[in-house]
Amino acid sequence: MENNEIKTSLSEMLKIRYPIIIAPMFLVSNTKMIIAGVNAGATAAVPAMNYRTTEELRAAIREIKNAVTGPFGINLIVNKSNFTYKEQLAVICEEKVDYIITSLGSPEETINQAHKNGIKVFCDVTNLKFAKKVESLGADAIIAVNKEAGGHAGNISIKDLVPELKKHCKIPVISAGGVGNGHEMRDVMKLGAEGCSIGSIFIATEESDVSEEYKQACIDYGKDDIVMTSKLSGTPCTVIKTPYVEKIGTDQNWLERLLNKNRKLKKWFKAFTFLRGMKQLQKAAFSATYKTLWCAGPTIENVNSVRPIKAIIDQIVEEYHAEK
């Protein structure tokens, strides 16, 4: 197909061929993945927290800018758990990336600072209340994180969340979760989405730096092997149900639950739980270990081999345009 562009308000806003965002994935996303996604006609984002220092973040942004002409974004955690939020935001604004994806907190300051620098802001939301809030603050688009998403998922299905946000919000709705091929993307667009944020199917790619074991797990396991655990960060998060996950369980034990409810201690316990969980994820992502805690969503059902990012995007677009 010569002209296989997918035109929506999102693709026009970002001037991309396909309204696909390769979702920012903690530990997984890297500069090679961003460059490959942009060069394939889509766009991509990387979490700021994938870089230990703001100077590393600045270097990554410059590396991407030197390699592509298309748009890319940075995912920014905007609540108090991100101690370097202000420094990260300053670097992002100085380097003038194309858009910021905000998560876990009020995006008001981010929107104000970003817009002063010509940067668009897309906000993660899980329900209509927060969607209306960020719209009133000036967000350029909302990312509807549904219960089919990988990582920290929402609790409303795609079929309910996207139409509700489309009906009540004036800014574009980008669906996040449950899309692993072009047929599913077409179905979501029919519900009113202007684009899709897609993550888990890009873990097992040639450009990804995670371990071969992690990539192979995305091939070997499927949607029925994804479970929700609260042991990683204190907030429910989707992981692959490996033998290790089955062994340790997915719920916090009685002591963890008690500490999580204690008014004086819960702040520190949550911080400890988060740091401990992130270290476990990092070790599992980049090395072979029996303590296999691998984040992924149900769309790994579509992963059958390790492939280049361009091949995956090309297939999604081909399936999207295919006749029923």
From TrEMBL:
Work out whether the entry's keyword set contains Nucleus: no
Protein keywords: Flavoprotein, FMN, Monooxygenase, Oxidoreductase
What protein family does this chain belong to?
Belongs to the nitronate monooxygenase family. NMO class I subfamily.
Q: Name one GO molecular function term.
A: nitronate monooxygenase activity
Top-level taxonomic group: Bacteria
InterPro entries the record matches: Aldolase_TIM, NMO
Q: Which organism is it from?
A: Brumimicrobium oceani
Q: What is this protein called?
A: Nitronate monooxygenase
Name the Pfam families for this protein: NMO
Entry-linked CDD domains: NPD_like
> What PANTHER family is this protein classified in?
BLR1330 PROTEIN, NITRONATE MONOOXYGENASE-RELATED
